[in-house]
């Protein structure tokens, strides 16, 4: 809305100079620093610019006071509106150009594509710029025809007519001479490297292709649980280094079923092993012989157990001792000789009679094929001393120990018991009333129990018999 105003001397000068007059609306609205009382501001401005009669343009039917009053009300209303509702600036809409040059990809401004984020918002504080993922270019494998070959390089012609070369360092896995492998006219394959030689020839790597093929074959063998064969090329304190087309490692604990002290004799041997870990990207390959050895051992045990029967006599070697007996190797399977089956007489511990490495004959007592347990005996191959002890015979023995219920007497083949009631003709309260350890006495055999290994003796009846 435009209002007729009084013209000042400055405005008159502007008009005389040919400059356009600014409207009151533009002057007031353009001022962004209005005070709280808009009407008072206008009144002060009017008072600070006094006008003369010759400079005033009086419009018809409108007084100066009315114009000032109406203008003050209008400006106050517009000022309140501007303060209550700040101007919202909309982000400009970017539209792609309709015309694109042929053969040229359209370029898009990065600032236009990225979403606008207000300063102080959650997105501006937490979001980080996302780096574009770069896809690794695929390796090109090319095949060509050999046109020349020497001990240092191989020249080829590719199907598209370009010349290529394979240097010796990129030829084989074992640094072999190209002339010993290829001849003119043969086909050769290689991976294209990212450079050309000074002669402008495409440089290929045959060793890269060979290594890739080896790893693919090893991965297939690992997936199918197949065994691989390789030659031991060196050793270290942790195991064996084996060549299976690529370098592999066999830990020392996976060389044999039992710990191996010296690995040096394995160098030069060809071993069969199973892949237990493979990682082509890091060229890591770990092998183990244990699965093969365990399978062979199980087969051998199965064959041996099927040929064993209770009562058979076999020759074995003592491999370990325990408090309860000795383990004997029968040629691939172990059996246990319990301490009670080592001798007819009583022994304190197995080491009193046997040592590791002793070779001896044992008798098979019992067999459990399912649990692979074999019970063995040494004493069963010897004559039972009790078979020579007859009831009612008089023997001479030595008192070995005293107990509350009698005295034990060694009669040479076994210890027999003289009960408290058989020590004397009269009633005895304690065995030491009659005998003491170390005394030699005459006893009579009352009974023999071979199964329980017990012999009952009597001093009283021996005296009556001798009397």
List the strand order in the largest sheet.
Answer: 1-2-3-5-4
Average pLDDT rating: 75
CATH homologous superfamily placement of the largest domain = Nucleic acid-binding proteins
* CATH level 3 topology of the largest domain: OB fold (Dihydrolipoamide Acetyltransferase, E2P)
CATH architecture term of the largest domain? Beta Barrel
Main sheet makeup: 5 strands, mixed, barrel
Evaluate the radius of gyration: 56 Å
Secondary structure tally: strands? 20
Instruction: Output the helix-strand order.
Output: HHHHHHEEEEEHEEEEEHEEEEEEEEEEH
**CATH first level of the largest domain: which class?**
Mainly Beta
Helix content: 10-25%
Number of helices in the DSSP assignment: 9
Poorly predicted sequence stretches spanning 5 or more consecutive residues? 1-128
* Tally of structural domains: 5
Percentage of β-strand residues? 25-35%
Characteristics:
467 residues; alpha+beta; OB fold (Dihydrolipoamide Acetyltransferase, E2P); 5 domains; five-stranded mixed beta barrel; 9 helices
Explain briefly what this protein structure is:
The protein has helices at 9-16, 24-29, 38-48, 64-84, 110-113, 122-126, 206-223, 290-306, 459-466, and strands at residues 141-149, 153-157, 163-167, 187-196, 202-205, 227-236, 239-243, 247-251, 270-279, 284-288, 313-322, 325-329, 334-338, 359-368, 373-377, 394-403, 406-410, 415-419, 440-449, 454-458. It is an alpha+beta fold and 467 residues long.
């Amino acid at each position: 809305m435009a209002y007729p105003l009084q013209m000042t001397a400055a405005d008159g000068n502007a008009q005389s100079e040919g400059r356009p007059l600014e409207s009151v609306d533009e002057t007031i609205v353009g001022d962004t620093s209005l005070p709280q009382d808009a009407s008072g501001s206008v009144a002060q401005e009017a008072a600070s610019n006094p006008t003369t009669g010759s400079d005033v343009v009086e419009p018809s039917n409108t007084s100066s006071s009315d114009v000032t009053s109406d203008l003050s009300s209008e400006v106050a209303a517009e000022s309140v509106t501007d303060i209550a509702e700040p101007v919202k600036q909309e982000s400009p809409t970017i539209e792609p150009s309709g015309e694109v040059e042929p053969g040229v990809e359209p370029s898009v401004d990065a600032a236009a594509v990225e979403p606008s984020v207000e300063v102080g918002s959650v997105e501006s504080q937490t979001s980080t710029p996302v780096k574009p993922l770069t896809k690794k270019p695929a390796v090109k494998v090319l095949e060509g025809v050999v046109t020349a070959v020497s001990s240092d390089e191989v020249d080829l012609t590719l199907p598209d007519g370009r010349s290529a070369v394979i240097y010796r360092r990129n030829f084989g896995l074992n640094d072999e001479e190209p002339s010993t492998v290829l001849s003119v006219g043969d086909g050769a394959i290689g991976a294209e490297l990212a450079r050309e030689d000074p002669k402008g020839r495409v440089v290929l790597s045959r060793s890269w292709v060979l290594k890739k093929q080896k790893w693919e074959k090893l991965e297939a063998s690992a997936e199918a649980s197949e065994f691989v064969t390789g030659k031991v090329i060196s050793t270290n304190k942790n195991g064996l280094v084996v060549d299976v087309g690529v370098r592999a490692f066999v830990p020392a604990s996976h060389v044999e079923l039992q710990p191996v002290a010296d690995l040096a004799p394995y160098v030069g041997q060809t071993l069969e092993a199973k892949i237990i870990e493979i990682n082509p990207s890091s060229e890591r390959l770990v092998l183990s012989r244990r699965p093969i050895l365990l399978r062979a051992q199980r087969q051998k045990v199965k064959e041996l157990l099927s040929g064993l029967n209770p009562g058979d006599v076999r020759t074995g070697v003592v491999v370990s001792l325990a408090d309860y007996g000795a383990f004997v190797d029968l040629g691939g399977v172990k059996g246990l000789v319990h301490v009670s089956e080592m001798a007819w007489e009583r022994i304190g511990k197995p080491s009193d009679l046997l040592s590791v490495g002793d070779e001896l004959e044992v008798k098979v007592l019992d067999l459990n094929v399912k649990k692979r347990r074999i019970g063995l005996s040494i004493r069963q191959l010897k004559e039972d001393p009790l078979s020579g002890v007859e009831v009612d015979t008089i023997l001479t023995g030595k008192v070995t120990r005293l107990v509350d219920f009698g005295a034990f007497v060694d009669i040479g083949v076994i210890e027999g018991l003289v009960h408290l009631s058989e020590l004397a003709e009269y009633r005895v309260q304690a065995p030491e009333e009659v005998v003491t350890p170390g005394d030699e006495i005459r006893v009579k055999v009352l009974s023999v129990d071979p199964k329980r290994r017990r012999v009952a003796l009597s001093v009283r009846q021996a005296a009556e018999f001798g009397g």
